């Protein structure tokens, strides 16, 4: 079987993952693998590291985070883009065991051999996304509509005002 993807240096940032063959739209490419940590464990290990602008943590669900620093695979090298050609899809275990939920990376559109795979990280921080943090978490995707940062704005939920 031919490997469909390969890791190599990226013009976007550091390492990247590239299609080895043409890939159709809506094709599952790879599972994002790594050790499962609770949010509390992840905070204890990595809390206060928002200054690095680098992470292999992927929020799996309300309880768990995937830490691709440990037991990770090639999926950890897929770079962020504001105009992604892939997306991360949560596959729930279905029997209530959220530890066994998975994150799958699938193509959004056809991808040609040699093209770099990207998805929108959608990173949200607990703290306010200041200009300094936006610079630390700078996006280098080069898309025409690039936001300049991998950080997403936290949107406040609309509160319905009931009036009698």
Give your account of this protein's structure.
The chain is mainly beta. The chain has one domain (5-122): SET domain (Beta-clip-like). It has two helices and ten strands. The longest helix has 8 residues, at 39-46. It is globular, with a radius of gyration of 17 Å. It starts with a strand and ends in a 28-residue tail after the last helix. 20% of the residues are buried.
What amount of the residues lies in strands? 25-35%
Query: What profile does the largest beta sheet have?
Result: 3 strands, antiparallel
How would you write the strand order of the largest sheet? 3-9-8
Mean pLDDT: 87
Please give the CATH class: Mainly Beta
The count of strands amounts to 10
Helices and strands, in order, run as EEEEHEEEEEEH
Q: Name the shape in a single word.
A: globular
Radius of gyration: 17 Å
CATH fold-level label: Beta-clip-like
Q: From the helix content, strand content and strand pairing, which structural class follows?
A: mainly beta
Uncertain runs are: 156-164
What's the short story on this structure?
The chain has 164 residues and is mainly beta. The chain has one domain (5-122): SET domain (Beta-clip-like, Beta Complex).
């Amino acid at each position: 079987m031919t490997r469909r993807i390969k890791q190599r240096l990226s013009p976007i940032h550091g390492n990247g993952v590239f299609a080895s063959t043409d890939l159709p739209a809506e094709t599952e490419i790879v599972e994002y693998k790594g050790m499962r940590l609770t949010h509390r464990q992840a905070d204890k290990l990595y809390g206060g590291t928002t200054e690095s602008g680098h992470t292999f943590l992927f929020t799996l669900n309300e309880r768990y985070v995937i830490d691709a620093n440990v037991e990770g695979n090639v999926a950890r090298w897929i770079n962020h883009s504001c105009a992604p050609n892939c997306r991360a899809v949560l596959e729930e275990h279905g029997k209530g065991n959220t530890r066994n939920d998975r994150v799958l990376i699938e193509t959004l559109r056809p991808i040609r051999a040699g093209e770099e795979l990207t998805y929108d990280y959608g990173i949200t921080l607990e703290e306010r996304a200041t200009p300094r943090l936006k610079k630390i978490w700078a996006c280098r995707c080069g898309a025409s509509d690039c936001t300049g940062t991998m950080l997403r704005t936290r949107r406040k939920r609309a509160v319905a005002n009931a009036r009698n």
